User: Which sequence fits this backbone?
């Protein structure tokens, strides 16, 4: 049997400069993974070099980059590597991450990747269950608006698909838009207005509640999502909570790691 210290799970996140959100999301995800896979050494890395440098300068906290984490694992004698991203979609960020890891493939016996959050229809169903149970006290007349990140990658259509999936499961009061792609906040204001909600709850559909949640979503500027829904005449309640805080979301990542481990030979 392989010695346990030769097997590792590398948890890869974009990162966040918000300490409270980091502790409530990324660190809890990593802890859940460590608890679920005691035979594996757990490593982590962030892909945002900018956020890594902010934490280093501001808080004296060192988070490894992808390359630093992989070089540390090679140094520690890791031979079998499972890489689990906390990304939502298999977009640009995830593809660059995979390329980086595979550039070290000669240093490992095996490398397998766990899927990002939404990789299959089942994942969507589980994510929908996690979100709706979190907002189970929402009235049928209230709208829940989810803020996705959005990407120029063709995978961006996943947001519209998820929106349809929510509605097909009977959640006609849930709407999804993105900060950086389609559907836009303008699309959402139009769609939600047609729904005639009594109140609107806004929350990020992102692993962490960072800059986008605090500024683009809940900021004081008239351009923020709160500002635009206010301008359209609605009562708005922002809920600043990253998806990483939802036990049902973290469970999806655990399942993806189990699936990845089953691919090892």
Assistant:
């Amino acid at each position: 049997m392989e010695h346990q210290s030769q097997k590792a799970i590398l948890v890869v996140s974009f990162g966040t400069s918000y300490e409270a959100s980091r502790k409530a999301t990324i660190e809890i995800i990593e802890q859940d993974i460590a608890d679920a896979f005691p035979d594996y050494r757990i490593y982590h890395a962030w892909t945002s070099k900018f956020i890594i440098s902010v934490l280093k300068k501001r808080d004296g906290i060192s988070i490894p980059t992808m390359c630093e984490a992989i070089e540390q694992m090679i140094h520690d004698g890791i031979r079998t590597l499972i890489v689990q991203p906390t990304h939502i979609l298999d977009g640009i960020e995830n593809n660059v991450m995979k390329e980086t890891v595979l550039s070290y493939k000669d240093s490992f016996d095996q490398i397998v990747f766990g899927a990002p959050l939404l990789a299959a229809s089942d994942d969507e169903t589980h994510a929908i269950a996690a979100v709706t149970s979190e907002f189970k006290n929402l009235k049928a007349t209230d709208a829940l608006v989810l803020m996705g990140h959005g990407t120029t990658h063709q995978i961006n259509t996943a947001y519209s698909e998820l929106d349809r999936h929510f509605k097909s499961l009977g959640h006609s009061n849930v709407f999804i838009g993105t900060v950086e792609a389609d559907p836009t906040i303008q699309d959402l204001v139009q769609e939600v207005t047609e729904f005639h909600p009594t109140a609107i709850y806004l929350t990020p559909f992102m692993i962490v509640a960072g800059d986008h949640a605090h500024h683009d979503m809940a900021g004081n500027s008239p351009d923020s999502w709160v500002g635009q829904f206010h301008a359209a005449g609605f009562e708005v309640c922002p809920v600043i909570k990253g998806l990483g805080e939802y036990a049902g979301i973290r469970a999806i990542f655990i399942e993806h790691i189990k699936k990845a481990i089953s691919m090892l030979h």
Q: What stands out?
A: Residues 35 and 189 are 42 Å apart (CA to CA). The two ends are 13 Å apart (CA to CA). The first strand starts at residue 7 and ends at 13.
